[in-house]
Amino acid sequence: MERKRIGIGKGARKPSGAAVFRPELTTALFRAFFEEWAETGYAAVSLERVAARAGAGKAAIYRRWHSKLEFACEAIQVVGLSLADFGDHGSLREELAVFLRKTRVIFRHPLIRKIIPDAVAERGRTPELSAILDSVAAARRRFGNGMLDRAIARNELQPGLDRELALDLLVSSLYMRMIVRRKNITVAELQRQTIAIESALKAC
Questions:
Q1: What is the extent of the structural domain holding 49?
Q2: What is the number of domains present in the chain?
């Protein structure tokens, strides 16, 4: 399935013949890129080391992406959007519980716990990277809006609620606990967060 490149992908090369891309190698390159990023920080990422981690040559990277930034943008887009997806679970509380459980899994990943703070710091130095991070955040908020819309349709939330505040509330407490404070969270604590966030959304 073709993936749209955001912002900087207009001149991307198209593979042909021997250069046809193997999906498993692309996946390995994404994994190696995130491993390198978590270890060194974005600014020090070496594409040579990324290729070596993936068991490939550097040419495998440049056949797919023109630069480290383009590589990073597609990796973030693909992973970020896939992690955001969730559907209708019948009630606001249950959807919040599912959302928080999925987000907890993401935040517990050792690579992600290192990459997210570095990405937040890097966005001020790399405007193009900032744009792609904003795009992924916007996509996640669209999923959040879907949750709010379903809750409004079920008369669980008021139609005039403060959307921006509500969307911030969905993840802020978990982000503060797990990413900023670097603390783990138990299932019982997650349940309490679910109830607290549901109450907060009803007050928005």
A1: 19-64
A2: 2
Domain assignment present for 195: yes
Q: Which pTM value belongs to this model?
A: 0.76
Count the residues in the chain. Answer: 204
- In this prediction, residue 8 carries a pLDDT of 33
Query: What CATH number has the domain bearing residue 138?
Result: 1.10.357.10
Confidence at residue 5, expressed as pLDDT on a 0 to 100 scale: 36
Average pLDDT, 10 consecutive residues per value, the chain (204 residues): 36 45 87 94 93 93 91 82 68 93 89 90 83 81 91 96 95 93 93 96 93
